[in-house]
Amino acid sequence: MAVDYKELGFVNTEEMFKKAMEGKYAVPAYNFNNMEQLQAIVNACGKSGSPVILQVSKGARSYANETLLRYLGQGAVAMARESGFNIPIALHLDHGDTYETCVSCIDGGFSSVMIDGSHHPFEKNIEETKKVVEYAHERGVTVEGELGVLAGIEDDVEAAKSIYTQPEEVIEFVDKTGVDSLAISIGTSHGAFKFTPEQCTKNDQGVLVPPPLRFDILEEIEKQIPGFVIVLHGSSSVVPEYVKMINSNGGDLKAAVGIPEEQLRKAAKSAVCKINIDSDGRLVMTGVIRKTLAEKPGEFDPRKYLGPAREALVEMMIHKNETVLGSAGRY
Ligand code: G3H
Ligand code: 13P
Ligand code: ZN
Question: Would 331 be classed as within a structural domain?
Fold first, then answer.
């Protein structure tokens, strides 16, 4: 039997995006796969008073079991309310690959879905996206589509290079599909290795500086569809502190580079109302777990290393909400 997201305590993204557009900030969309990540997201967004989108990928659904994930999400709402956090919480499918995956999530209590048809030819992308929008909107669920291909790996979809969104395509896509928000490609990419060292320059300290995002394309898109909600994927900053923590505790992440915080801050002040962050959370958890186990080799109680990792995640996300996305205090 289908579950209504409203009964689970979730909201769709309509109101949060309206406020984000007016207030010139972006709502964080944090991915989770397990209980500790989810606890950290709720506590960080609750403490900083930020609306939040709990993001579940197809990979997360199969890793954690899709039914359990939904109950975890429902538990997160209950935990937030019990803690006195009155923030709006959406449960969102990240990179939905097919109509069927989206329907399964909508029927399972998700309040928002992404149908990622960006790897399809334009017409096919429109057709797939429109079908999802029709099913979703009948049930009050909001839909994110994507135009343009991000460099790197988007779930199962491999793209050899970044194909920027073409501004001249966005009006037709938005009109014909009826989507509520549009993910675009302006130079971000998924994972911890967003740019090769050859694509970067070096600053005075020898730190790799990536090429700037294509704000010119973003501006063109905004001119074509004024006031329409834009989404940025692949927006982790690959926080150097945690890359260093991983590498100095037995890890091996060479030349990991992300999107500088100032650029994300600039994007958040534009029509970009949703910013996706997954890799930074992975790096924080891995860094703290590695460090804790290196310092205490006799430790074997998972709570003793997952606990500190969870605390560090809270700190990282509060920092993002307060100083990068600008969503703190905006619930
Ligand atoms: O954009 C992709 C997200 O980071 C999810 O990654 O498919 O490994 O869960 P995943
Ligand atoms: P990062 O890999 O940069 O965290 O991006 C995550 C993302 O876009 C999830 O959809
Ligand atoms: Zn993504």
Answer: no
Count CB-CB contacts under 10 A for residue 319.
16
Which two three-digit tokens encode residue 19? Answer: 């406020």
The answer to whether the beta carbons of residues 203 and 209 sit under 8 Å apart is yes
Give tens-digit pLDDT for 82-99.
999 999 999 999 999 999
Write out residues with Cβ below 6 Å of ligand 2.
Answer: 31, 94-95, 190-191, 233-236, 276-280
- On average, the pLDDT of the chain sits at 95
- Does 193 reside within a domain? yes
Banded pLDDT at 162 (limits 50, 70, 90): low
User: Which atom, in ligand 1's list, is nearest to the CA of 155?
Assistant: 7
Residue 330 lies in a domain: no
pLDDT at 198: 87
The whole model's pTM is what?
Answer: 0.96
Q: Which domain holds residue 69?
A: 5-325
Domains of the chain: total: 1
Task: For residues 183 and 153, give the distance between their C-alpha atoms in angstroms, rounded to a whole number.
Answer: 15
94 as an active site residue: the answer is: yes
Nearest residue (CA) to ligand 2, atom 9: 276
Question: Looking at residue 317, which CATH number applies to its domain?
Answer: 3.20.20.70
